[in-house]
Specification:
This protein is mostly beta strands and about 1250 residues long. It contains 13 helices and 86 strands. A hairpin with a 2-residue loop joins strand 20 and strand 21. It is globular. It is found in: Membrane.
Length: about 1250
């Protein structure tokens, strides 16, 4: 026939089915339709027409084909496909990615066929045209293809059951399989219960539309799949046990035991002991097969026990409505002529708000609204702008389940009920009777003409079973436009979709939803983004280090967006960034002697689990682990030929009998390999049966501990792991160069991150193509990066423009993410860009070509420059290894100080390395990774440090340019002095600098705690005092003092770390007559010196000299003399904690390696030096506690000529203060080195 047909495709040979074609007539007055050989066309071309086919029995439908009406301009360009078992309660067929609409024809003659990805099993098929040729009408020819389908059905009424027992019980099998289809009337009930003779049980239970599988063995395990399974449509379930696993499947989604008794539809009172109070299943089961046995057929033959089971599926005829769009509404007539009113309906929705019903009341009594507010039902009556009635009922009604709302008004008493149980009652002094009609879900667009006002949001969801004064509204007549009015409704179907099942929220993110979208709550997951896909933490300590973070505890996510969870790990930021993983047994553990049968097992629980440890180790550049075993008359090996007494187990579970320093399988200790054991007859000191303690180290074989029998065990030291992924780089030197990798698989979620630096203005960073889909990231201009892709909805672009050019040869970071909700792009710390994905579009990214990095498949628009640390979905691509075998691409990319040099603080100098950089803190009074750590000490009377330069004749014997730069600073045309202090003592001397001729500088606190700077530059003039009248500084807080003199100008700055800048003091010094004579210390200075100093001193610096740092960190290589106890303290610390660190404790710092990468320049004193012009014989005394800090310069003038060596000396290139380095300047040489304390 012309309108529709049925064919056989992929089926067993047999006669074709007969079919009935029904045509919908929108109105009884419009019964003319076009039905000729040319095909089907309704009289009215609108979205409320359909073509329906009755296949007379449940049939497997595998494909549909459409064609335009013959010889006409009538064809359908898009349509929906619906199916049903009853002719009511239709269900929409959705393609992959939940695309509902099918693309139709583009002309009247061509045939467009769709093979359904999942076959449909139904009796009725319906096609709803959405769009058609604008120059024609709705018209089509339809062909459906499919197969015969056998259906064995059993119906359960809530008290029914089938009991299938094995007699005798079968033996164990390698595989068990149970499959069935079910259709439920109620949202809860037990479908299947299994037991075996050992008490193991499996229960499949429908609970609020979700299917739960409970496994009870020695413990209880529960799995949940599916949602909205009470929609009165068939759903497929499967339970497969295979090799100790159970695969649990619902529709398209997947778990162990052997059972001898199975109960279907509930649990009978006979046989199994009922240990729960769950209700039995109410619905139908179809084609119930257990290991190929048709249980329904056995029930029909009465070969299994059954109770109240029938073998036909009674269908409930309920007509639902879907309010899917913002303009949806339903208008119904309602003429109330008595004083009692009742209204009831059922609804289901995900939204927390929305209008359910509104009506104007008779006798101008006001307007009645029933609506959802915060997922509760709320009733309000407004009259003359006032709320005269306001009551609520129910809660959490936006859970997607069917809920009922009932309104009853009788004799002035108004009752509002939610789900029959939760009611709210009030009384009114006026009649509550709707006037003529009511509106459900919303109002027409022209509210003024309709008399409908909606003060609230529209309702989006489903409604059914609408009763007005006890009479059920015939919604089929509404659909036929015989009663009422509507717009934007989907009739005779509930189109609710659970967007959280399966959930697109990753890594444990909690999914919530509204009617049109879903949201992921990523709190406390460690991940972010629209779907909790991307980790908010760095993948290594190295990455934290290059954000400027110092040593501390950090969350590390080694695989980024992969499945391994973030782990709190200590990062030791030294020359390299080390990851330190701790365990619970760092103290010595005594082990008891073993008889040989009951071995002593020593376990260590690490702060990271096995998967995390494995991932960290696999990505590490270097790993270390140490475990020591102390033995005293405790034998280990029993000679290489005998069975060992002790062994240790490696991470793969294998036993080993070699020990630290020995080679695998040698059954020796290190001393045996080196032939230096205490007893040469044994290969381990422990085997000598000696009465002394001997330590034995275990080899660095991660991560499992050994099992020793007796002795004392010291737990393994922390695992030190350093990741090299951060520096994995490649340099592309031609536009046609590229690296290729296997296809990138990021169907639903994809995140890509990398760093780049370039001089080029444009280029493609990476590209991967599919048949139609693609993904690409490129630099389109010096200030713009574009992330583009296509998943089937057309090309999509996300752009980020930067205010500064990106082709500046500095490292820049790019991070792109694409998921089912949105796509985002971030460049450095600039504002990112986010583009929302289409609400109902394709979501799978399908790629099939190679991934090109640094170029494209067309070898055009390639990238020139460096790409580093390229990660796709948390996996780092090994650019260096691939670059080694690729022409025109070089592995590695040097030059990092330009990007990271700013991390070196406090005059620290950036030093280039192949993989990264380091900060040289030699010219800084600070130490640490970034020259950020204050070098501090707390002093008490009796502690002192003397720092001195060597005599000039000693300097003549060496040629160190570094030392020469030191002495060139000390012509004393000016000086830079800085220090921090914390004390409660006043008065106190903080700094003293003097010469043989009573010229000196003193920094002190007077009796009021104010800072005094006392300068005497000429011996024949009195000292001048510059006093700060700021607050008392002897208050126990940390203060920073900076003194800068350039010739005759002095600047003093005092700052408290907890307060604002105190003061800047400037003065001009007058020159005087030359000449000097020796004398004693200034009496006031001597008196303060005698008092001593108690407090904290930190980061002391005189020009380029850091005397306190030299005394504390390098006392053996610096010209310092320490008297009394002197230990480093954190009393001068003022740094704030990192926002990325969970804790910035330094309790574990400096376990490995050095904190700073550079020695202070004072350490070069012992090396050879050359005489620098103008500086001869200078001695600095630093006395801490007695003088706080005293730097004494001893010099006198002498008329001499400069040596040639001094003329050629190179001055220090980094002093902040200009010093006189003129080789022709005069200088004075002392005869002897002088050093003394006052």
């Amino acid at each position: 026939g012309g309108g529709g047909g049925w064919g056989m495709e992929g089926c067993v040979a047999g006669a074709p089915f007969h079919h009935i074609v029904r045509f919908h007539i929108s109105s009884l007055m419009k019964c003319s339709i076009y039905l000729r050989a040319g095909g089907w066309s309704p009289l009215d071309s609108n979205k409320y027409q359909w073509l329906e086919i009755d296949l007379e029995q449940r049939t497997e439908i595998t494909a549909v084909a459409t064609q335009g009406r013959y010889g006409s301009s009538d064809w359908v360009t898009s349509y929906l496909l619906m199916f049903s078992d009853t002719g009511h309660n239709w269900r929409q067929y959705r393609q992959e990615d939940s695309i509902g609409a099918f693309s139709g024809n583009t002309n009247a003659d061509s045939v467009v066929t769709y093979k359904l990805q999942q076959p449909v099993f139904a009796q009725f098929l319906r096609v709803l045209p959405l769009d058609w040729n604008p120059n024609g009408r709705v018209g089509l020819r339809l062909e459906a293809y499919g197969c015969q389908y056998k259906s064995d059905v059993a119906s359960f009424d809530g008290t029914s059951y089938l009991l299938f027992s094995f007699d005798p019980p079968p033996g164990p099998s390698a595989k068990d399989l149970l499959t069935a289809n079910f259709k439920s009337v109620h949202h809860s009930g037990i479908l299947i219960h299994m037991e075996d003779q050992h008490g193991h049980a499996l229960t499949m239970e429908l609970l609020k539309g979700k299917l739960f599988l409970h496994l009870r063995k020695d413990f209880h395990t529960t799995a949940s799949l599916g949602s909205l399974l009470d929609d009165q449509h068939w759903h497929h379930i499967s339970i497969e046990r295979l090799r100790g696993h159970v695969n649990f499947t619902v529709d398209k989604n997947t778990q162990l035991l052997f059972f001898h008794k199975i109960s279907f539809g509930g649990v009978s009172a006979v046989g199994a002991q009922r240990d729960h109070s769950k209700r039995n299943f109410h619905g139908c089961l179809e084609n119930l097969l257990y290991n190929g046995v048709n249980v329904v057929e056995l029930a029909k033959e009465k070969k299994v026990s059954a109770g109240n089971v029938s073998f036909t599926c009674a269908e409930a005829v309920e007509v639902p409505l879907t309010f899917a769009s913002p303009d949806s509404f339903l208008q119904l007539p309602w003429a109330v002529s008595r004083d009692s009113v009742s209204l009831s309906l059922q609804f289901r929705t995900w939204n927390r708000g929305g209008l359910l019903m509104t009506s104007e009341l008779q006798h101008q009594a006001g307007t009645l609204w029933i609506y959802l507010s915060d997922a509760r039902i709320r009733l309000q009556i407004h009259k003359a702008g006032r709320i005269v009635v306001d009551i609520t009922a129910g809660s959490a009604l936006n859970d997607g389940q069917w809920h009922s709302v009932e309104l009853s008004v009788r004799r002035g008493r108004l009752i509002l009920a939610a789900d029959k149980a939760d009611t709210s009652t009030t009384t009114t002094s006026f009649p509550v009777m709707p006037a003529n009609h009511i509106f459900l879900g919303g109002c027409p667009g022209t509210e003024g003409d309709s008399g409908c006002r909606n003060l609230f949001s529209v309702f989006q969801g489903c409604m059914r079973l609408i009763h007005l004064d006890g009479s059920l509204v015939d919604l089929i007549k509404v659909q036929q436009m015989l009663i009422g009015n509507f717009s934007g409704l989907q009739m005779d179907l509930c189109g609710i979709v659970d967007r959280c099942s399966p959930s697109h929220c990753e890594h444990g993110g909690k999914c919530t939803q509204s009617w049109s979208t879903f949201h992921c709550n990523c709190s406390n997951t460690g991940y972010g983004g629209a779907t909790c896909h991307s980790s908010v933490y760095e993948a290594s300590c190295e990455a934290y280090k290059h954000r400027g973070n110092t040593s501390g505890l950090y969350y590390i996510d080694v695989d980024g967006s992969g499945p391994i969870k973030p782990q709190l790990i200590y990062c030791n930021m030294s020359d390299k960034a080390w990851m330190v993983i701790q365990h619970n047994n760092t103290e010595l553990t005594k082990l008891r002697a073993s008889s040989g049968t009951n071995q002593h097992l020593a376990y260590f629980n690490y702060s990271a689990d096995t998967k995390q440890l494995g991932a960290i180790i696999s990505r590490a550049e270097h790993c270390e682990q140490e475990l020591s075993y102390h033995c005293k008359k405790s034998r280990l090996l029993n000679t290489p030929d005998g069975a060992p007494f002790t062994w240790w187990v490696g991470r793969s579970g294998e036993a080993h009998t070699y020990w630290g320093g020995a080679v695998p399988d040698s059954q020796q200790c290190a001393c045996g390999l080196q032939e230096d054991c205490v007893d040469p007859e044994h290969f381990c000191n422990c085997d000598g049966d000696l009465d002394d303690w001997y330590p034995t180290l275990y080899p660095p074989y991660l991560p499992y501990p050994p099992y020793p029998p007796k002795g004392i065990l010291n737990g393994p030291s922390e695992h030190l792991l350093s990741s090299d992924d951060f520096w994995n780089a490649a340099y592309f030197n031609k536009e046609t160069s590229y690296l290729h990798f296997p296809t990138f698989h990021g169907e639903l979620s994809a995140d890509i991150s990398f760093l780049f630096k370039t001089r080029s203005s444009s280029g493609v960073f990476l590209e991967n193509l599919g048949i139609k889909d693609f993904i690409r990231i490129e630099l389109s201009s010096p200030t713009e990066v574009i992330f583009s892709f296509d998943v089937g909805n057309g090309p999509f672009e996300v752009r980020v423009e930067t205010p500064e050019p990106l082709n500046d040869e500095r490292w820049h970071r790019v991070k792109a993410e694409r998921n089912v909700k949105e796509a985002s792009l971030h460049v450095d710390n600039y504002p990112g860009a986010v583009q929302k994905a289409p609400a109902d579009g394709h979501i799978h990214l399908q790629l099939n070509s190679q991934l090109f990095v640094g170029g494209t498949a067309s070898r055009q628009k390639g990238f020139l420059g460096c790409i580093r640390s390229l990660k796709l979905n948390g996996k780092t691509l090994d650019l260096e290894e691939r670059a080694k075998i690729t022409p025109e691409v070089r592995p590695g990319c040097p030059g990092h100080c330009r990007s990271y040099g700013g991390l070196c603080q406090n005059r620290g100098r950036c030093v280039e390395k192949y993989n990264g950089f380091a900060c040289d803190c030699g010219a800084s009074p600070y130490s640490g990774t970034f020259c950020h750590k204050e070098v501090s000490a707390y002093f008490r009377p009796g502690t002192s440090v003397a720092y001195t330069f060597k005599e000039p004749y000693e300097l003549n014997r060496n040629s160190s340019s570094q030392s020469s730069s030191i002495y060139s600073d000390l012509t004393l045309k000016g000086e830079n002095v800085s220090l921090s202090f914390r004390t409660g003592q006043a008065p106190a001397l903080l700094l003293y600098v003097s010469s043989y001729y009573r010229e000196y500088l003193a920094v002190l606190l007077n009796r009021n705690g104010h800072l005094d700077v006392k300068y005497k530059l000429q011996s024949n003039r009195d000292a001048e005092v510059f006093r700060s009248n700021a607050r008392n500084l002897a208050n126990g807080q940390l203060h920073q003092v900076s003194i800068r003199r350039v010739s005759e100008s002095l600047s003093v700055q005092v700052r408290c770390t907890l307060h604002t800048l105190y003061e800047d003091m400037k003065a001009v010094f007058l020159t005087g007559a030359e000449g000097a004579e020796s004398g004693e210390m200034d009496p006031e200075i001597a008196r303060l010196n005698a008092l001593g100093f108690t407090g904290c001193l930190s980061v002391v610096q005189f020009n380029s000299i850091a005397p306190l740092k030299a005394a504390l960190l390098y006392p053996d290589t610096s010209p310092v003399i320490v008297t009394g106890p002197l230990t480093e303290s954190n009393c001068g610390s003022s740094s704030s904690s990192s926002p990325y660190a969970a804790e910035t404790t330094h309790s574990l710092s400096d376990h490995f390696g050095t904190v700073g990468t550079g020695q202070p320049v004072v350490n070069a004193i012992s090396s050879d030096s050359a005489l620098i012009g103008g500086v001869i014989a200078v001695v600095i005394f630093v006395i801490l506690a007695a003088l706080a800090v005293m730097a004494r310069f001893l010099y006198r003038r002498k008329e001499t000529c400069q040596t040639p060596e001094s003329k050629g000396a190179k001055p220090d290139d980094s002093p902040e203060t200009p010093f006189n380095t003129d080789p022709t300047s005069q200088s004075i040489i002392t005869d002897t080195q002088k050093e003394y304390f006052i």
